[in-house]
Amino acid sequence: MARRSSEKTGKIPKIEKTLEVPKVPKAPKAAKPSKAAKLPKPPKTKNKRKKSSATTVSGRELAHLPDGETRDLVILTGLSGSGKMSAAKAFEDLGYYSVDNLPMELIPSFAELVLSSAEITHALLVVDVREGSRLDRFPSILKQVRKTLPTRVVYLEASEDALIRRFSETRRPHPLRREETVVDSIRAERGRLEPVRNVADIILDTTKFNVHELRAHINAQFERGHGDGQALSLSVMSFGFKNGVPAHADLVFDVRFLPNPHFVPKFRNLTGKDKRVAKYVMDFPQTKEFLDKATEMLTFLLPHYIQEGKSYLTVAIGCTGGQHRSVMIAEELRKRLADAGYRAKAEHRDMPR
């Protein structure tokens, strides 16, 4: 009876209620941290999408490689007979993955491929007159591609006489129109490629170049492994005004105001690379003053060109024939720029060889 009384006093329902406490589903309370932990997930996914979207648009992050290099695309184009195939081989030797005559509509897709590829970091596309009427769309396609990948356009050309001579030597028909004369085809091609030439970063006149000089020119502009101070490939070129100003010159200096060694009989058959001719020109005070001021101006300009992203600069020095004064000035200016830390070379377009 006492036991029963005790059981009655304990009120089993209360005990059952107490026993049920652990069974009360507190999972919702425990689940709150879990739900709170899940809350950041949507923003993370959103952030990832934003990052991926930004990369797709600009390509800045993926364009930079771990070793400090940058992925890039070079579009090589220009007139038939100007040396595109020789230039393409030079690019291949520099490690560029080369594709010839890719349909223009596929260029943006190719840029995306290069951007995401683990193997292709530097690529070259050859575009020429075979694209036909689609060449009119090249500027807009280029603008689209540059949002994805750093892209430069190299345009090769040559004088009409040089192109006629090259087609005559190779005995190959012009790719544009086989039924017309080579001259007509060359002129028609110039007109058709005008929209491409207008957006080119580098216009290279190969009239005076042989295959080896063209290769050296490409190597000087695009070989990698140089520091920031040498990111600009600088060419100081002498020329004669009687043969025309170099078409690809960025800056032109006229040194015809200096005394002309041509009128000194013992110097007439020599060039500005001869020490005696160089001393003759340097002995005039205006020569040294010009060199000092030209060097000062260039050392001011070059860092700004580099900051702007320019990779190649041609400084043209002209005299009457391109044999004495311009050659001497170009050589001296190159030395001064090299001493200032720039990767400079001297070229002499019209100097007798």
UniProtKB/TrEMBL annotation:
It comes from Bryocella elongata. Keywords: ATP-binding, GTP-binding, Nucleotide-binding. The lineage of its organism: Bacteria, Pseudomonadati, Acidobacteriota, Terriglobia, Terriglobales. Residues 41-52 have a biased composition (Basic residues). The keyword Nucleotide-binding applies. Transmembrane segments: none annotated. GTP binds at residues 128-131. HAMAP family: RapZ_like. This is UPF0042 nucleotide-binding protein.
